[in-house]
Design brief:
383 residues; alpha+beta; Butyryl-Coa Dehydrogenase, subunit A, domain 1; Butyryl-CoA Dehydrogenase, subunit A, domain 2; Butyryl-CoA Dehydrogenase, subunit A, domain 3; four-stranded mixed sheet; four-stranded antiparallel sheet; binds flavin-adenine dinucleotide
C-alpha cells in the first residue's frame, strides 16, 4: 500500500528502509565526512560497517550474499539518504561495487560469485570497474588494453584511467581486448590486487574528493583464465547492460544532490536578513526557489516512472539516457542557483552546496557523457 497520496511508488517498507539508512548516515558518515574528503579516500572499515547495516547488499542476488528487493525504489531511497551527507565522492566510492559487481553476479560462475562478489557485498573486499582508458572513455568498443592467451593465463598489457575506488580495490572488473577490433573482441577479467605486473597511481580531482580515483597499469600482468567473467569476446553486452543501471543511479544521485541544494538554500533564504527583511521576502529569490522546485519535481517524476518500468523488466535504453541528461543538467542549474542564494557563504569550503557545486560536472561526463547519451538515445529511437 502506498504510504502517501503524493507517490504511488513508495510504501511502508521503503520508508522503514529509509529510517535504517538515515540512522547509519547520521551515525557513521556525517561526523566524519569532512575528514574523509580531506584525506581523499574512505576508510575500508566503512565498507564493513555499511555491509553490517545491510546497505551494500541491496538489489544483489541472494546467491552472492545480496538482499533481493522487488524494485529500484530501494536504491533510490538509499541514494537519497546517502546524499544527505552532501558528498558525491562518498556514494561513488562506497557504492563502487554497484558497477563492479553486477557483471560477476549476472554472468559469473558460482565459484566466481563466491570469490569475487560475496566478499565485496560483505564489506570485506572492495570492487572497482575499469573500462575507461587514457585514449578515451566514450568509445568503449575501441578500448586497447590487450589480453593474450598464454596457457591457463592471459597476459594483460595496457592501462585504465579515472577508475573509482581504483587505489583501494581488491578486485577490478576490467574490460580487455581478447579478440579483433570493435565490440566483438572485448572480454571482462577480474584482476586482483597484488597480481604481478599490476600497478596504480592516484589522481587528484575537482570534486568527488572522498572517492579515490586511479590510473591502473598492466605490464605482462598474468591473470588466470578462471578470472574471465562470461565467454571470451562477449564482454561488451555485459558492459552495456551494466551502463543502464549505472545511468539510473547517476540520475538518482543528481536528483538527490539537487534536493539537498534546494533544501539548504530554502533554509538560508528564510534565515538570512538583507535590507531589513528575510531574503525569501524578495520575489526574485522566491522565483528562484520555485523554479528549483519545479525542475526537482520534474526530474523525480521522470526518475520514478523509469525506475518503475525497469523494475517491471522493461529496458527503456533511450529514455534512461535522456533521464540521465535531464537529471544531471537540472542538478547543474539547481546547484548554481543554490550557490547564488547562499552568496559568499556558499563559496566557502564546508557547506554542502559548495561541495555539490564542485561535483556537478562529473555527472554529465561519467557513465556516458551528455553528448554520448543524446547520440545513443537518438540512435535507439531510429533518428
Ligand atoms: C571522477 C570520475 C570517475 C570515473 N570513474 C570511472 C570508473 O570507475 N570506471 C570507468 O571505467 N570509468 C570511469 N570514469 C570515466 C568516465 O566514464 C569517462 O570520463 C567518460 O566515459 C568520458 O570519457 P573521456 O573522459 O575519455 O572523454 P572522451 O571520450 O575523450 O570525450 C571527450 C568529450 O568529447 C565528447 N565526445 C566524444 N565523442 C563524441 C562524439 N562522437 N560526438 C560528440 N561529442 C563527443 C564527450 O562527450 C566529452 O564531452 C570516471 C570519470 C571521472 C571523471
Amino acid at each position: 500500500m502506498p504510504v502517501s497520496a503524493a507517490s504511488p511508488f513508495y510504501n511502508q517498507e521503503h520508508e522503514d528502509f529509509r529510517a535504517q539508512v538515515r540512522r547509519f548516515v547520521e551515525r557513521e558518515i556525517v561526523p566524519h565526512i569532512e575528514r574523509w574528503e580531506a584525506a581523499e579516500e574512505l576508510p575500508r572499515e566503512l565498507h564493513r560497517k555499511a555491509a553490517d547495516a545491510g546497505l551494500l547488499q541491496i538489489g544483489f542476488p541472494e546467491r552472492a550474499g545480496g538482499v533481493e528487493v522487488p524494485d529500484l525504489f530501494y536504491m533510490i531511497v538509499l541514494t537519497e539518504e546517502l546524499a544527505r551527507a552532501g558528498s558525491g565522492g562518498l556514494i561513488a566510492s562506497l557504492m563502487s561495487h554497484g558497477i563492479a559487481t553486477p557483471p560477476i553476479c549476472h554472468t559469473g560462475s558460482a565459484e566466481q560469485i563466491a570469490r569475487f562478489a560475496a566478499p565485496v557485498l560483505a564489506g570485506e573486499k572492495i570492487g572497482a570497474l575499469a573500462i575507461t582508458e587514457p585514449s578515451g572513455g566514450s568509445d568503449v568498443a575501441a578500448l586497447k588494453t590487450r589480453a593474450v592467451r598464454d596457457g591457463e593465463h592471459y597476459l594483460v598489457n595496457g592501462s585504465k584511467t579515472f577508475i573509482t575506488s581504483g587505489m583501494r580495490a581488491d578486485y577490478i572488473t576490467c574490460a580487455v581486448r581478447t579478440g579483433g577490433e570493435g565490440m566483438g573482441g572485448i572480454s571482462l577479467l577480474v584482476i586482483e590486487a597484488g597480481t604481478p605486473g599490476f600497478s596504480r597511481s592516484p589522481l587528484q580531482k575537482m570534486g568527488w574528493w572522498a572517492s579515490d580515483t586511479a590510473s591502473l597499469y598492466f605490464q605482462d600482468c598474468r591473470v588466470p583464465v578462471a578470472n574471465r567473467i562470461g565467454a571470451e569476446n562477449m564482454g561488451f553486452m555485459a558492459i552495456m547492460m551494466n551502463f543502464n543501471q549505472e545511468r539510473i543511479m547517476l540520475a538518482t544521485q543528481a536528483w538527490a544532490f539537487a534536493k539537498v541544494c534546494y533544501e539548504d538554500s530554502l533554509i538560508y533564504a528564510r534565515e538570512r536578513q538583507t535590507f531589513g527583511k528575510p531574503l525569501i521576502r524578495n520575489q526574485v529569490i522566491r522565483h528562484k526557489l520555485a523554479d528549483m522546485k519545479m525542475r526537482l519535481d520534474a526530474v523525480k517524476a521522470h526518475l520514478d516512472i523509469l525506475a518503475w518500468r525497469v523494475s517491471h523488466k522493461q529496458m527503456p535504453v533511450a529514455e534512461v539516457c535522456l533521464l540521465k541528461n535531464h537529471a544531471c543538467t537540472a542538478l547543474e542549474w539547481i546547484a548554481n542557483e543554490a550557490m547564488q542564494i547562499l552568496g559568499g557563504a556558499g563559496y566557502l569550503r564546508g557547506s554542502r552546496v559548495e561541495r555539490i557545486y564542485r561535483e556537478t560536472k562529473v555527472l554529465t561526463i561519467g557513465g556516458g557523457s551528455l553528448e554520448i547519451m543524446k547520440d545513443l538515445a537518438g540512435k535507439q529511437m531510429g533518428y
